[in-house]
Amino acid sequence: MTWLLVIALALGAFALAVFLFDLPRAVWTSLGAILAFGLAGYALQANPDLPAAPKSAATASEDQLFDVVEARREFVSEGEASRADILVTSDAMARRGRYAEAAQLLTRVTREDPQDFEAWLAQGIALTEHADGTLSRASLHAFQRAAMAKPDNLAPGYFIGLSLARQGRLMDARETWADALEQGAGDAAGRDLFVFQLQRIDAAIAATSGQMPPQTNAAPEQFADTP
């Protein structure tokens, strides 16, 4: 139902500009591209209630863009899972939108074991969600430490790219994801989901440019600078 409303609003905006304000035909294509970009961004994030400003923990838990715990576990194999019991508590907090508290708990884990890949990854996600999906210096550091602990794992690159996409930086997200796939292990956990998301972002980019989506089996640049 929400999709129909969004599309109707886009078509209404186009009609209003063309007929009521007598928009010149020469700029019709540009206006259509702008509206298509908005629809593509909506399709990529797929959440009409995505918050524009920080909310309380109770509200954040209701409006989560995705299950932060399950999304992380898609990329963590059995041998990569954290053995820290405190991760269970931090996960419960994260699922309730208490991201800052979850990240603080995870600091204790990473101090005790700087090679705990999943703890670093969970902390990066919690810090990013605490900032409403925006990468911060602290969250980027956590993702980088996770990448150092497990260089072949796809998760750090995936969640960095996801944050970029949520900020509307589709090309940066696409480059980050392609690099991560190129450098990650061929049998890495979550690879199928990663490829699917890369295809979605290619479609979103193509919708704004009127071109065919690029192939997803090659990466344009090395991923070393952005784990």
From TrEMBL:
Q: Where is this region: Disordered?
A: 208-227
Q: Fetch the Gene3D superfamilies from UniProt.
A: Tetratricopeptide repeat domain
Record-linked SUPFAM superfamilies: TPR-like
TM spans (from-to): 27-44
Q: Where is the composition biased (Polar residues)?
A: 208-219
Q: Which domain of life is it from?
A: Bacteria
The entry's keywords: Membrane, Transmembrane, Transmembrane helix
* Name assigned to this protein: Uncharacterized protein
